[in-house]
Amino acid sequence: MNPVRNISLHKLAVSAFVLFLGTTALAQTPDTTGIPPTVKQPELGPNDTIVVHAMIINNELVPSGFMDWCWIKAPYPKEKLRKRQEWTRLRNAIYVTYPYAKRAGAIMNDMNAKLANITDKEARKKYIKSREGELKKEFTKPLSDLSVYQGKVLMKLINRQTGNNCYEIIKEYKGGFTARCYQTVAFFFSSNLKQPYNAQGDEREMESIVLEMERMYRL
Predict the structure, then answer these.
(1) Where are the domains of the chain?
(2) If you average pLDDT over residues 73-86, what whole number do you get?
(3) Who wins on pLDDT, 5 or 212?
(4) CB under 8 Å to 148, separation ≥6 — which residues?
(5) Which contacts of 110-115 are long-range, i.e. CB under 8 A and separated by 24 or more positions?
(6) How far does the signal peptide extend, from start to end residue (predicted)?
(7) N or C: where does the chain have the smaller number of CB atoms within 10 Å of the terminal CB?
């Protein structure tokens, strides 16, 4: 073997070994910059060559690290999923129908205030007919696009706005016979004109959604 080449390889091996020892020594020397003197320093061994992050816990340096975000998915319980779907359906229906209920309630409350001062039967009929045309003109088209479920929600909201269910309103304006006819029609659609509204009872969820809408849109 060439003596010169042999000496060169020997020098290279020695240099690499010295470099390794130097790196190990540096790795075992912790960076104490900014660490209070009262904090206990870790005792490094000969194999502690990997530099890691550390944080001070109970006045002692503790190795620490950062993990990537981990998303965990689990099947939604069937009962909770059903409840969530029902709530979403109710919320969507209220967002569609509440503006109509609020407007109709305002008109009917105004009508009731005016009718309280009209005692003549013919004059009352004439006034009701004129306001009925106003209601039909404003609401016939949009309300005809509602589903049966949305119609039920609308009737409850009208009760909320006026204090009377739809059966009582029709009976007051059009007479008991007409109210019974409409109630029969509603029955065939699995509905009821006598929709109640109890903000502290069965309609508690509806009330919370309505209040949410009023806060958001200042209705």
Answers:
(1) 3-64, 78-217
(2) 89
(3) 212
(4) 189, 190, 191
(5) 111/173, 112/162
(6) 1-27
(7) N
